[in-house]
Amino acid sequence: MAAKGIRPSGSGKAGGPGNPGESPKAAAAGNGTGAAKAFGSKPAPGAQKAPGFDKPAVKAQGTSAKGAASTKRRSQAIPEVVTNRMARRIAIAMGIPSLLGMASFVVSYLLVSRGILDIPPAITLVTSGGFFLLGLVGLSYGLFSASWESQPGSLLGFEQIGVNLARLKQSLKQPPAAS
Fold first, then answer.
1. Considering only 64-68, 73-77, 95-99, which range has the smallest mean pLDDT?
2. Per the domain annotation, does 98 fall within a domain?
């Protein structure tokens, strides 16, 4: 015979070593409060719900200080015109050397595999590494050569590099704004 409170597994009724009305899955989890829901079955009749699990999440109301901080952040955001200008310059100044760095592997392979030239692997590695390094320099150049004002500036933007570096240094010297 089965012990009191335990039903045989083939009976089809909920029951287990814990509460008499508790499902075997919930009993295995250790309680009948919310563990049965985790296993996809219904909680036992009379089981208590865990506090706060069936309530919708409540959004906190923003205070005026938080609203002012978000407005300040929005006003400090980079304008879309400037962002697009930077992206174009970065794509050109970084993209071309990076493509050349990848192409150096392909060209070297084709020259060596067809017997046209015997290129040492170190030369291929140094060449591609140089192009990738030039691409890294191009990333910085594209960022700092773009005009950070609403006016577009010159084609190459050499005059903007000094101005933008000075702005960056000034922003690093200022203490962070209190939130």
1. 64-68
2. yes
| Residue-wise DSSP of 13-76 | S---SSSTT--HHHHHHT-SSSHHHHTTSPPPTTPPPPTTSSSPP-PPPPPHHHHHHHHHHHHH
Q: Would 164 be classed as within a structural domain?
A: yes
Which amino acid type is present at position 114? R
Residue 68 lies in a domain: no
Q: Report yes or no on 51 lying in a domain.
A: no
Question: 125-130 long-range contacts, Cβ below 8 Å, gap at least 24?
Answer: 127/101, 128/101, 128/102, 128/104, 129/101, 130/101
Mean pLDDT of 65-72: 52
For the entire predicted model, the pTM comes to 0.52
Residue 21 near residue 48, CB atoms below 8 Å: no
Q: What are the backbone dihedrals phi and psi of residue 103, each rounded to the nearest 5 degrees, phi first?
A: -65, -25
Identify the domain containing residue 90 by its residue range. 78-173
At 93 the pLDDT is 95
Give residue 68's pLDDT band: very low, low, confident or very high (50, 70, 90). low
